[in-house]
Amino acid sequence: MEIRQTRVICVQSYNMSLDQLNIRTEEIDEILGKTPNKIIRWGVTVIFLVIIALLAGSWFFKYPDKIKGEIEITTLNPPVVVVSKSTGKIDTLLVKNNQQVNREDLLAVIENPAHINDVLMMSKISDSLIKVTKTGTLNGILPYAPASAFELGELQNYFTNFITAYNNLAQFI
């Protein structure tokens, strides 16, 4: 039965008169052919004009490619200015470019009459002798006699006075 109903519908659509088909196309023409309201026409026109104005404005008003100004760049660990306590020419540079250094690291040696190796040895000796005196037990202090003469430049007098005072302390105890 379902098949017959389908055939009847198809036959009915073919049997429509030409007038009925024309009515439908006129109805469709009425819907599609109807001109838009004034609001819609003006709205589209205004939107079109705004877009044209934006494009024209972007042509005449250029965004600057370069901006002149001052900036300050900082880091978590900013670079530090290193200032020497004395003036002179650099004799030996002990660090390389962009090498990280820590506090109290030896960076360079300025020309002077002292030899850097002797100064470093004097520093180790004086630090070890000071540690011995700070332990609290002065019974084990022995007099110090340098094995060789140091070339310490301006520090020579201070080191000699220190060694003399240390040896006096060792003899006293």
**Distance N terminus to C terminus?**
132 Å
Largest sheet: 2 strands, antiparallel
The amount of helix comes to 40-55%
What sequence of helices (H) and strands (E) makes up the elements?
Answer: HHHEEHH
Residue windows where pLDDT falls under 50 for at least 5 positions: 1-11
Q: What order do the strands of the largest sheet run in, or round the barrel if closed? A: 1-2
What is the total tally of β strands? 2
**How would you sum up the global shape?**
rod-shaped
Strand content: under 5%
Q: What class would the helix/strand composition place it in?
A: mainly alpha
Q: Helix tally?
A: 5
Question: How confident overall, as mean pLDDT?
Answer: 75
* Gyration radius from CA atoms, angstroms: 50 Å
Describe the model.
Strands 1-2 form a two-stranded antiparallel sheet. The chain is 51% helix and 4% strand. The protein has helices spanning 2-14, 18-33, 38-60, 116-134, 156-172; strands at residues 90-93, 108-110. It has five helices and two strands; from the N terminus they run H-H-H-E-E-H-H. The protein is mainly α and 173 residues long. 1% of the residues are buried.
